[in-house]
Design goal:
two-stranded antiparallel ribbon, 2 domains, Lysozyme-like, 8 helices, alpha/beta, 9 strands, five-stranded mixed sheet
């Protein structure tokens, strides 16, 4: 059985949540898990010798009634804080449908960190994303706030959900690298090659377009090595027939 740090160490672990005091979590959920939220703990990262960042962040978490989260990660540690079936207090308005990880560093300092340390903590973060994907079925993809609010499952930064108060995991957080590594760990295919007109895709349609491209049902075109999806262009009957044929082939292949 996995030990959960807050369940054995929190100062108020025996005091139910009531009127803003007591343990900062609920022992159940009222909604299914839809979001994996990436935070930075904003602690001073530990680059010298054994990395004690996650341990320090966990100790802080055990002494506050204001916040909680599910996992804490540094370059050489992964501390399970709460079961994912518990509702932790880590992102305003989204706690009931989110699990959260705290990376033991600061959002503004990714490019200043030693490269070996940086890759180690990012790889552990990728492993966390792969774990959430495998346990809860969340697709390994980055979401916008609009997509999250529309109910789309996936992964998102704390600052994206709370942009007026938070910036973590930071503008320099390498989402593409972390998500690609998570897909490798989880054994899922890499993302489709980039499309030059991706900035023209409506936010609500991005996940559907990427899924259809990944499955080979919709393709766009490739002229001189530049891929374009042409999201606003009218579809001819020929293109529709080809897409429907590929869809039927995909359905038969999965039956």
């Amino acid at each position: 059985m996995t030990d959960f740090y807050l369940l054995t160490n929190h100062v108020s672990r025996f005091k139910p949540r009531e009127k803003g005091t007591g343990r900062p979590w609920y022992t159940s959920r009222v909604r299914p898990i839809q979001l994996g939220v990436v935070h930075t703990a904003e602690n001073l990262p530990d680059f010298i010798g054994e990395d004690t960042g996650a341990e320090a962040v966990a100790r802080y978490g055990a002494g506050t009634e204001r916040a909680s989260w599910h996992d804490t990660i540094d370059s050489d540690s992964w501390i399970r804080m709460l079961p994912h079936s518990y509702t932790a207090f880590h992102v305003v308005d989204y706690n009931s449908r989110a699990v959260g990880v705290e990376l033991a560093t600061q959002a503004a300092k990714w490019v200043e960190t030693p490269i070996g340390w940086r890759h180690a903590i990012l790889d552990r973060g990728a492993a966390w994303i792969a774990d959430v994907h495998q346990r809860h079925g969340l697709p390994i993809r980055r979401l916008t706030k609009e997509q999250a609010d529309a109910g789309m499952p996936g992964f998102i930064g704390h600052g994206t959900l709370d942009p007026t108060r938070r910036t973590d995991p930071g503008a320099s957080f390498p989402w593409d690298y972390v998500l690609d590594e998570a897909k490798k760990i989880a054994g899922t295919p890499p993302p489709p090659p980039g499309y030059a007109d991706r900035d023209q895709w409506a936010p609500w349609a991005i996940a559907g377009i990427e899924e259809m491209i990944e499955r080979g049902i919709l393709r766009g075109d490739d002229v001189d090595g530049v891929k374009r999806f042409h999201p606003k262009r009218e579809v001819t009957r020929e293109e529709l027939a080809a897409a429907l044929w590929r869809m039927m082939e995909a359905i038969k292949g999965g039956s």
